[in-house]
Amino acid sequence: MELYKKYRPDSLNKIIGNEETVNSLKQLIKKDDLPHAILITGKSGCGKTTIGRIIKNELKVDDWDYKELDTAIYRGIDTVREVRQQMASRPIKSKYKIFLIDECHMVGRGGDSAKNEAQNAFLKSLEDTPKHVYFILCTTNPEMLLKTIKGRCTEFKMNTLDTKEMMLLLKKVSKKEKKSIPVKVIKQIVKSADGHPRNALQLLGKVIHLDDEEEMLELAKSESNEEQAQVNELCQAMLNGNNWSKVSKILKGLKHIEPETLRRNIIGYANAVLLNGNEGASLILGWFIYKNTYDCGFALITQFCNNICNEVEPPC
């Protein structure tokens, strides 16, 4: 079993970092005052879905009364109607029913447009939620939700871990695995993972079976270097005027990178190229730094790259 799955926390007491969110949830659950519509936001790999599953455990909800929907598969109006039908019935084995909707911003078509039929239908579910039902919405892109949906939810933010928290996590897991990982290697994993516990544990799982410290260190470094090389290839393709089919193919190979890390790497590369005299990089910078593009998510990164390939100028 992969380490990030093996050591996924199953209670609020086992979570490292995000003290404000964890303490708030503890108090609300203790007081039996947990909101029936919860929005958990944050970057990919920060533990949003994990928090949702922990809430299920804290409320002692049986699997029979827990439904987890992946909007990559279930995203249309029919799915929303099915949820409305299911929420009307009483729980089978628990006091409550929980619906966890992962990447909820992908429900329907049109993002936060008033014409998004599925999101408008889902809003009705949030307005009429029975006392025995809890909705847990997880998203990397809350700006793509209807404002009325966000207004119905209590939002909890999951942040990336700082260096100290990441070191603690990796040392704890290494100890449980009965492996001695050199401090240099752990520091490199922390650097390569960029604050994302899932990425860190995935990388730890790759180096933990090696015996040579230098091999461990090189593997930990290569993960970071390989990602940057892929980002460089993407930027070069756009600068060289390659067509969308080639750029989209490169993008597909970058979906494993956390979107905000990808955005920052693109900006860093384009800025270096612009300073070296290639003014074509200004179009890339324009799209990736304008207005509220921080933590924009992979879908908007794809859209920005498409706009650059079509030489569409960014808004002022």
Characterization of this structure:
With about 325 residues, this protein is an alpha/beta fold. It has three domains: about 35-160, P-loop containing nucleotide triphosphate hydrolases (Rossmann fold); about 165-225; about 225-310. The protein is built from 14 helices and five strands. It has helices spanning about 5, 20-30, 50-60, 75-90, 115-125, 145-150, 165-175, 185-195, 195-205, 215-240, 245-250, 260-275, 280-290, 295-310; strands at about 35-40, 65-70, 95-100, 135-140, 155-160. A five-stranded parallel β-sheet has the order 2-3-4-1-5. Helix 7 (about 165-175) crosses helix 9 (about 195-205), helix 8 packs parallel to helix 10 and helix 10 (about 215-240) runs antiparallel to helix 11 (about 245-250). The longest helix has 27 residues, at about 215-240. It is flat, with a radius of gyration of 21 Å. The termini are far apart. The relative contact order is 0.11.
Strands, helices and their partners?
Blueprint: H1 3-6, H2 19-30, E1 37-42, H3 48-58, E2 66-70, H4 77-88, E3 97-102, H5 117-127, E4 133-139, H6 147-152, E5 154-158, H7 163-176, H8 183-193, H9 197-207, H10 213-239, H11 244-252, H12 259-275, H13 281-289, H14 297-309
Parallel strand pairs: 1-4, 1-5, 2-3, 3-4
Helix pairs in contact: 4-5, 7-8, 7-9, 8-9, 8-10, 9-10, 10-11, 10-12, 11-14, 12-13, 13-14
Helix content: 40-55%
Integer tally of domains: 3
H/E series: HHEHEHEHEHEHHHHHHHH
Q: So how many helices?
A: 14
List keywords for this structure.
316 residues, alpha/beta, five-stranded parallel sheet, 14 helices, 3 domains, Rossmann fold
